[in-house]
Each structure stands twice: as structure tokens, then as C-alpha cells.
Amino acid sequence: AKMAALSGGTGWRRGWLPALQLVRRGSKAVTRHWKAMHFQRQKLLAVTEYVPPRPAVPLRCLPRHADPTHEEDGYVRLLRRQVQEVFQKNRMVAVCQYNSMPNEDVVTMQHYLRKHNIEVKFVLNEIVRPVLAQSKYRNLLPLFVCRNILLVSPETRAKEMLRVLKGVPQVNLLG
Hints:
Blueprint lengths: L1 H6 L3 H4 L24 H9 L26 H16 L2 E7 L4 H13 L3 E5 L1 H9 L14 E6 L4 H9 L4 E3 L2
Helix pairs in contact: 4-6
């Protein structure tokens, strides 16, 4: 009661001020406003801009450089040799168009063909075409345009091959 009497009741709250007050005056801190470039500086930049010199002779008038000779890769030679052996050692070589199909179906087809001693060879046209161009099978070249597989067998097993291929619509016999 004495304290309240000395301070004048609830007046001690009215007179209280914080020890530190933050008051901002003057300009704001944001200084990133766009400002147009001075016209003298624009002129200076335009005058000092780099302009590459034109060639004395236009590029279309110069002779073209011959591409460096493409050296054959050893792996490509190996694949070509394997394809050559396939054509030499087997009596039946069938060229088929191969459309994508699930892996399980491919394995099943290979299994049924292997029962009749027929192997399935997946080949690249870039590998087969040069081999065929220099062999007696030149007339097969037009067949190697899209994705192809070769069905090869040491004996002629056309009847069994056709029976298996009848159940696989994704593989079309070409020749």
C-alpha cells in the first residue's frame, strides 16, 4: 500500500518508456529501381561494340574439306565376320521383320525354334548390308531396311519355322 501511495496508484505504468526505441527516418533501403541509361553512355557502348571482320572470301566459295576417312572398329569387323559365317555355314537363312514384343514372348519363340534346331540372330543393318553387298546374296539387300532378325539352321527346316511363326504376329517372314 505504501508503494502504491508513493507512485500515485497505477501511474507508474503511464510514465514507463522502453530503453531502446527504433525509429526510421529518411530514405528507404530499397535502391533497386530501374533507371534509364544515360544517352552518352548508350552512344559510347554503341561505338565501342565489337564487330567481327568479314572473311575476304565468303565461306560458300571455299572448297569443302574432305571428311577424315572413317576407320573401321574392331568390334564391327568381328560382327561382320560372324554374319559372313552365318551365311556360309547354314543352308537355311530366313530374313524376318521384327516388331517389338515382350521379352517373355521372344524367349518362348526362341525356345520353340531351337527345338527344331533353328537359331534366332538379331542383326544390325549397318553390319549386314556391307557383307551382303560383297556376297552372292546381293538380292537380299532391299529386305534390310527396318529392324530385322535372321532365322538360321544348318538344315532346311522351312515347314517347322513357318508353323512357329504363324503363332507370332510380330515377326513377319520377308525372304
